[in-house]
Write a structure and sequence with these properties.
The complex is a heterodimer of chains A (201) and B (340). Chain A is built from 9 helices and no strands. Chain A is mostly helical and 201 residues long. Chain A has 2 domains: 100 residues, RNA polymerase sigma factor, region 2, helix turn helix motif (Rna Polymerase Sigma Factor, Chain: A), CATH 1.10.1740; 76 residues, Orthogonal Bundle (Arc Repressor Mutant, subunit A). The longest helix of chain A is centred in the C-terminal third of the chain and has 28 residues. Chain B has 340 residues and is an alpha+beta fold. Chain B folds into 3 domains: 52 residues, Arc Repressor Mutant, subunit A (Orthogonal Bundle); 109 residues, no CATH class; 115 residues, Sandwich (Immunoglobulin-like). Chain B is built from 9 helices and 8 strands. In chain B, strands 5-4-7-8-1-2-3-6 form an 8-stranded antiparallel sheet, covered by helices on one side. In chain B, strand 4 and strand 5 form a beta hairpin. The chains are: A mainly alpha (201), B alpha+beta (340).
Amino acid sequence: MRQDLEQAASTIDPVLLSRAVKGDHQAFSRLYDLSGTLLYSLALKILGNREDAAGLLQEIYLEILKKTARYDVGRGTPIVWLITLTRNRAIDRLRTGGVRAKGRAAPLLNGSTTERATDQPSGSFDARADQELRQLILAAAAGLPPAQREAIEMAYYAGLSYVEIASRLNLPPETVKTRIKLAMTKLREALGEGEERHTRS
Amino acid sequence: MTHGELEDAIPLYAIGALERGERQVLDAHLLSGCSSCHSALREFQAVAAALPFGLDIVAPPRLLRATIMAARASNVGPDTTGRTSELSRLGPGKWIDHVSQPDSHSTAAWSSILPRWILGPAIAAAVAGGYMAWSTYDSQVADDPIALAQRKEQADSAASQLAELQRQLEEREQSLTRAREELHRSLADMADLKDQLIQREAELDVLKARLDQYEKRRPRTPEDELAVLLRTPTTKAAVLAGTEAARDASGIFLYDRRTRKAWLYTLNLPACPAGTEYRLWILNEKPVNVGAFHVGKGETAHLFVQSAPDFPDTKALSVSLEPVGGGPQPSGALYLRSDL
């Protein structure tokens, strides 16, 4: 069990991140192996092409090394920090227009297929903890009304504010605001219940 | 924005859906240290960070890993092998100055500058040259015993110099070997120390995080609350003076209208007779009881109030001695009073 936890992206140990940032080569390699696939998938989702996603990831890992981006243990787990950092940087690139033409746009939050390239490092996203979280978020997202899911996706992956989303959907801003708030609250409850079930089991 | 509106904005903040101005307002509120909003933000940020787990998972190109690791090596190289890198930048032969101090002796000095591979051939050339010269002139001096003796003396001297050069060469090689071994040991020690340092720093980070969590969970003592009040810029203070009933008594009253927290500290109040207690009153149109406290003989006393009534138009504060569980109006003698 312990070994499983250590190999999951969702349970990256703050000590591992700390060691990686401080120049421990093995820890840095391990950090990349645990988080690279998830972060690349996120960058690809937002930027829409592999070249930009790879470039962004390279930039992010070097930022971590050069301590330009600093992890603060008081602000969440390492994976929350890494995902937030990747998402924000990708959205920045999207907004500044430094992105090539988008490739195939994968459906959001459907999890219908798991594309695996032949050169995927082994164990990068196969850990039980990651798969459990994946099933949990897929089930929770599937339980949302489509309008709420759409608002969440437009905000998170397209970097749009609720006012911008409202403008695109021709809706009052307050409606979009409410949809996002309700969706986030439902997702929080679903994740909390899933965590409780996991703790009990 | 009210606090309720700020709380409502947290899910949108976590997912990046707020307008810039609203985000800045919430940022400022979070900076003020609101613990409930911080806690809610952590939860919603975890929700936002869980979203990518539901994406189609695509492995990054293998080349990306190699590129990042290579960039990492060039990035941290000077830190981990600073001395070695410095040596590698030196010109041929110069690096030896960095592992052994130059000798003042002339031969040792040049032998320390010339590369090792030059030194051996130089000696061989010196020997060969000496032999050739000796051979060339051998026939001319064969019949001259004096010249022959001189040549023999020169040959002996050359052989002696050669032996000395060889001895110095061996010494230098031994010294170089020792220096190299010492350098390797030092580098290994430094690597060990660095590993230990990284481990300790990582442990320290974890301990700091635990300490932070402990501090957040630990119930606040009245002293903690007083410290918070004193640090709060909006806290106001009033001094209470003793009345005729207790001329030496005094008190200080701190109140933060934003958090409604109040603190009273008193000195030299007479001990409460049995069945009585002191009560703090806010004197508006009618007196409002803020709280009660007991004073024993020779004691100072403090009263901390978590949620004091708001009193924007209060004219005065007073402390009176009342029966325990007394009524809504002061009935006993006044001991402390302050006009606001």
